Amino acid sequence: MTDSEIEQWVLRELRFAVRIESHELCVSVLQGIVTLGGTVPSRISKMAAKRAALRARGVKSVVNNLRALSSPRLRVTQRVMAKAARRVTSAQRPLSDPIAPVY
């Protein structure tokens, strides 16, 4: 089976995969090794793309270079954690403070 045939099988599998939400994927094949590139909206989509590529005929292995965007919930959590960390570090007293002795 040629690399171009494998690429067509991979593209077909990606097209029919349920959890892949992005149509901006790059697929390249070299000696049966598939490389996936591009951006998908979530880690679930990233893993689903790899599984779909592995199902295709002639695939020996998959290099998953897809970049998963973080979810809106994760971005909010990261902002909240960063704000909390800033509050904690600004509330800490310096080590030379007589109330907080250094041993």
Question: Describe it for me?
Answer:
- This protein is an alpha+beta fold and 103 residues long.
- The protein has one domain (3-91): Histidine-containing Protein, Chain: A.
- It has helices at 3-16, 43-55, 72-91, and strands spanning 25-30, 33-40, 61-68.
- The N and C termini lie far apart (70 Å).
Over the alpha carbons, how many angstroms does the gyration radius reach?
Answer: 23 Å
Q: Assess the beta-strand content as a share of residues.
A: 15-25%
Number of E-state strands = 3
Helix percentage range: 40-55%
Specify the overall morphology.
Answer: elongated
Mean pLDDT: 82
Straight-line N-to-C gap: 70 Å
Tell me the strand order in the biggest sheet.
1-2-3
Give the biggest sheet.
3 strands, mixed
Q: What is the level-2 CATH architecture name?
A: 2-Layer Sandwich
Weakly predicted, low-confidence segments: none
CATH fold type: Histidine-containing Protein, Chain: A
Q: Helical region count?
A: 3
Instruction: Give the domain tally.
Output: 1
What is the SS-derived class?
A: alpha+beta
Order of helices and strands: HEEHEH
Assembly status:
single chain
CATH C-level class: Alpha Beta
